[in-house]
Amino acid sequence: MTTAILSALPEEQSSLVQHLLHAQRVMHAGRAFWLGELHGRPVVLALSGIGKVAASTTATALIERFGVARIVFTGVAGGVGDGVNVGDVVVANEYLQHDMDASPLFPRWEMPGYARSRFVCDAPLSALLSGAASAYLASADGQLGFRSMDGQVPANPTAPRVHAGLVASGDRFVCAASEAQHLRSTLQAAGHDVLAVEMEGAAVAQVCHDYGLPFAAVRTISDRADDTAHVDFPAFVRTVATRYAEHILLGFVQELSK
Fold first, then answer.
1. What's the CATH number where 185 sits?
2. Is residue 66 part of a domain?
3. Which of 74, 80, 223, 256 is least surrounded by Cβ atoms within 10 Å, i.e. has the fewest?
């Protein structure tokens, strides 16, 4: 059974490709797919592309062209939930599209044709991701290894932690405190307590739902989706997110192989 590992960023994919045995690069649908083995298990690595449409195309190609049995997503996200800080990890247990609004034909956030607003992630895969993330954060001894452009370590009242909960996706980079707060409060008022926001996961969750494939996702919190979200993003990806993705996904595949 082949496992697909989708990465949101090239830096995350390149670190994983370096660990592939019998690596083979295949071009399909304008995308590069890396086939090989991690810990003796067949995998396909791919970049999702940015945004929901690109991610949906990639996920469909993984299923139709490469016959993968499960999809796991790794990337970064903006933290919006209470206590979700820079350097923390969020493992999604459900996904919602925060920019879906077909009202008044359908209730806001409901997916037309699905009679639901959320797609549930696979519980066993999510548990393995949580375990791998917790193990890595414990081994890292709470050190981010990241300093902002002014040389300061980002304020975090606690050592990096793993959270599990609802993640929202939309075709917009949320980078204003007022927008993030409005997004969270509006969703929360409707019973959707969102921990983080990003741009691809909900689309992949929907594709996996359509095909009946297990799906799980892990996101490293790079910012608080506020007015400074874009400032230190490249440095954070290079020094933190890439390292997180490498260790968490390798630990995940190792446990999957047992």
1. 3.40.50.1580
2. no
3. 256
